[in-house]
C-alpha cells in the first residue's frame, strides 16, 4: 500500500476477495462492482443506519446496503432505476415466479406497434408484447405485486443481448441497446436472422441465477429492511425527498462527462415498461464539459452536506480523464460545501480486456482503478 497526505493506494477489494451476491447480476451501463459499496458500508456505517445513493442506476449500493442490514434510500431521475432495484429487495421464490409465468396468456398475433423484426422472431415478439401488456394491466389496475415486479425486472434486463440468454438475436451487450438501424447492420454483417427464443423459459432461467445465493438467512435480512427502503427521483442538486441530517452514509458515482446517453441506451427498456423516452431524456442531466460537470458536483455536494448526519460520511467515486484530475475537483467541491476530506482511496486492479476495448493503456487513466473521495460531515456542524 502506498499513500501521501491525502491518497491511499492499494487493492482494497477485488472479485476474488469476496464473492458478491447473485442478486447483483443485472446489466446496466456504467455501474460499479458491489465490492466497492460493501467496503465503505462495512467500514463507515452500522446495521440500522441509512445509506443513500443519489445516482442509484441499477441499485448496487441499495441492494448491498439491504444485504448488510442498512436501510437504503435509492434516488435516480431515471424511473428504470426503481424497476431494477426494488424487486431485488423483496425477491420471490422461484416456484412463485414459475407459477405466475405459467398463468400469463400469450397472444401469438400480438405485435409491438413499432418495427422490432430486426430483434425478434415473430413468436418471440408476440411473447414479449403479451408479457408487456400483462404487466401494464397489472400495474394500472393496482394488482401488481412483488412477483410481477420481479418478472418485470428480469424481463427488462433480457430484452436484447449477445447470447441465447436474451430474447433478441445477437446484439450489443445488454447494457446498451442497439437502435433498429444499428441492429439491421449487425444482422447483415453477421448474416443472421432472429430465431425463436422462449421468453418465459429465459425469465425463469435468469431468475434461478439471480436467486441462487438467496438463502433463508438472506431473505430474513432483506425482509427486515425492504419495508423501510425508500425510492426517490429527485435531482441530486435538490433532494427534496430527503430530510436534513438523516443519512449516515452516501456511496455513489456521478454521471460521466458527455459519455453515456442513458435514455438512448435504454430505449428498448423504456418501451417495454411503457415509459416515454423523451420525458426521461428531459429529466436526466447531460454534462457536456468540465465546467458544467464541476458546477453540477458543487451543487450536489451542498445537498449531500445538508442531508448527512453530523459525523456521517460521503464516499464519492469518480473516473479520470486525460484533461483533468476529477478526484481533486470532487475534493474541492466537497470541502467548499462544508464536508471534511478524510482520504481518497485509489483501488488498483489487474488489467482487463474491457480496458483494452476502451483504449486504456495504463492503470492511472483506466477502468482498472476506482478513485473514491471520502468525506465526513463535521460532528458539530
From TrEMBL:
Recorded GO MF terms: DNA binding; N-methyltransferase activity; site-specific DNA-methyltransferase (cytosine-N4-specific) activity
Q: Which reaction does it catalyse?
A: a 2'-deoxycytidine in DNA + S-adenosyl-L-methionine = an N(4)-methyl-2'-deoxycytidine in DNA + S-adenosyl-L-homocysteine + H(+)
Keywords, alphabetical: DNA-binding, Methyltransferase, Restriction system, S-adenosyl-L-methionine, Transferase
Q: Which segments constitute the DNA methylase N-4/N-6 domain?
A: 6-78
List the GO biological process terms: DNA restriction-modification system; methylation
Give the InterPro entries listed for this entry.
DNA_methylase_N4/N6, MeTrfase_CN4_CS, SAM-dependent_MTases_sf
Q: Which EC number(s) does UniProt give?
A: 2.1.1.113
Does Iron-sulfur count among this protein's keywords?
A: no
Which top-level group of life is the source organism from?
A: Archaea
Cross-referenced SUPFAM superfamilies: S-adenosyl-L-methionine-dependent methyltransferases
Q: Which family does it belong to?
A: Belongs to the N(4)/N(6)-methyltransferase family. N(4) subfamily.
Protein name listed in UniProt: site-specific DNA-methyltransferase (cytosine-N(4)-specific)
Q: Which species is this record about?
A: Thermogymnomonas acidicola
Organismal lineage: Archaea, Methanobacteriati, Thermoplasmatota, Thermoplasmata, Thermoplasmatales
Amino acid at each position: 500500500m502506498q499513500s501521501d497526505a491525502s491518497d491511499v493506494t492499494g487493492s482494497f477489494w477485488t472479485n476474488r476477495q469476496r464473492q458478491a451476491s447473485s442478486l447483483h447480476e443485472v446489466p446496466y451501463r456504467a455501474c460499479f462492482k458491489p465490492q466497492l459499496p460493501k467496503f465503505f458500508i462495512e467500514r463507515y456505517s452500522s446495521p440500522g443506519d441509512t445509506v443513500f445513493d443519489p445516482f442509484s442506476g441499477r441499485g448496487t449500493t441499495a441492494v448491498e446496503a439491504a444485504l448488510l442490514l442498512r436501510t437504503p434510500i435509492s434516488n435516480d431521475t431515471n424511473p428504470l432505476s426503481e424497476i431494477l432495484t426494488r424487486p431485488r429487495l423483496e425477491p420471490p421464490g422461484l416456484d412463485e415466479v414459475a407459477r405466475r409465468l405459467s398463468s400469463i396468456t400469450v397472444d401469438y398475433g400480438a405485435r409491438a406497434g413499432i418495427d422490432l423484426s430486426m430483434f425478434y422472431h415473430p413468436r418471440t415478439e408476440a411473447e414479449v408484447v403479451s408479457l408487456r401488456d400483462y404487466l401494464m394491466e397489472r400495474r394500472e389496475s393496482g394488482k401488481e405485486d412483488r412477483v410481477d415486479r420481479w418478472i418485470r425486472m428480469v424481463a427488462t434486463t433480457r430484452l436484447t443481448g449477445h447470447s441465447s440468454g436474451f430474447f433478441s438475436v445477437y446484439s450489443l451487450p445488454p447494457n446498451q441497446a442497439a437502435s433498429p438501424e444499428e441492429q439491421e447492420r449487425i444482422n447483415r454483417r453477421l448474416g443472421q436472422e432472429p430465431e425463436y427464443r422462449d421468453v418465459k423459459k429465459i425469465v425463469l432461467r435468469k431468475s434461478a441465477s439471480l436467486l441462487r445465493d438467496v438463502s433463508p438467512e438472506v431473505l430474513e435480512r432483506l425482509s427486515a429492511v425492504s419495508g423501510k427502503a425508500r425510492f426517490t427521483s429527485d435531482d441530486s442538486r435538490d433532494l427534496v425527498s430527503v430530510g436534513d441530517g438523516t443519512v449516515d452514509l452516501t456511496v455513489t458515482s456521478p454521471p460521466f462527462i458527455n459519455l453515456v446517453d442513458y435514455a438512448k441506451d435504454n430505449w428498448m427498456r423504456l418501451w417495454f415498461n411503457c415509459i416515454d423516452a423523451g420525458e426521461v431524456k428531459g429529466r436526466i442531466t447531460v454534462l457536456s464539459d468540465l465546467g458544467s460537470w464541476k458546477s453540477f458536483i458543487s451543487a450536489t455536494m451542498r445537498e449531500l452536506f445538508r442531508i448527512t448526519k453530523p459525523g456521517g460520511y460521503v464516499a464519492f467515486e469518480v473516473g479520470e480523464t486525460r484533461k483533468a484530475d476529477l478526484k481533486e475537483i470532487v475534493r474541492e467541491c466537497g470541502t467548499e460545501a462544508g464536508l471534511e476530506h478524510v482520504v481518497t482511496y485509489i483501488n488498483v486492479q489487474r488489467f482487463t480486456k474491457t480496458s483494452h476495448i476502451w483504449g486504456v493503456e495504463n492503470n492511472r487513466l483506466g477502468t482498472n482503478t476506482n478513485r473514491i473521495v471520502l468525506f465526513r460531515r463535521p460532528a458539530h456542524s
